[in-house]
Specification:
- The chain is an alpha/beta fold.
- It is built from three helices and seven strands; from the N terminus they run E-H-E-H-E-E-E-E-H-E.
- The chain has one domain: Rossmann fold.
- The protein has helices spanning 49-64, 81-94, 139-151; strands at 28-33, 71-75, 100-107, 109-111, 118-121, 136-138, 155-162.
- A four-stranded parallel sheet has the order 2-1-3-7, sandwiched between helices. It has a three-stranded antiparallel sheet with strand order 4-5-6.
- Strand 1 (28-33), helix 1 (49-64) and strand 2 form a beta-alpha-beta unit.
- The chain starts with 27 loop residues before the first strand and ends with a strand.
Length: 165
């Protein structure tokens, strides 16, 4: 079986920059790749998550002329709840109308059995956690990000690679 998050399977055609490579020069990217977790067993398919995140980061920089300082790349032990949440808040806050924010997650996604919500798990997810709310980001939280971006007239492009389902 081929893992879902092989780097060569990223489809950049789904990202719209209106064919203007300068249009994204003031835009941002938060890119997360997790092939290792502090407390959680890692499925075999996650072996390619870091490679996918690095490739995604390199490709959006090259294709869309995003400045390096506007790309926040979090791999394995750097992909903590605090780092990722703060970066998402920062890029939404700094963005201006017509900017673009690229968000890419190649990570483990699990359903919280208490809330029945799907969560992207961060490196520091607590072992045997009953609620993921502090150590992960729910798909509902991503909807909130979309609303904040829409209020600012910022295009938010989210790509999630579910490596374990």
């Amino acid at each position: 079986m081929t893992p879902f998050c092989l780097a060569q399977h990223i489809d950049f055609s789904v990202i719209s920059c209106l064919n203007n490579t300068n249009a994204c020069s003031n835009s941002y990217a938060v890119v997360v790749g997790l092939s290792d977790y502090r407390y959680v067993d890692v499925p075999e398919e996650l072996a390619f998550a870091v490679d996918s995140a690095i490739m995604f980061s390199n490709e959006i920089k090259r294709l869309f002329n995003i400045r390096q300082e506007n790309i926040f790349l979090f791999l394995n032990d750097k992909a903590t709840a605090q780092n990722i949440n703060q970066s998402l808040i920062d890029v939404i806050s700094k963005s201006k109308p017509n900017d673009k924010i690229f968000v890419y997650f190649a990570a483990k996604i699990e359903q919280d059995w208490v809330t029945n919500s799907d969560y992207l798990l961060f490196y520091d997810i607590a072992p045997n956690s009953e609620l993921f709310s502090n150590d992960a980001i729910s798909l509902v939280d991503l909807n909130f990000l979309e609303k904040k971006a829409e209020e600012k007239n910022v295009e938010l492009i989210i790509n999630m690679t579910n490596c374990n389902r």
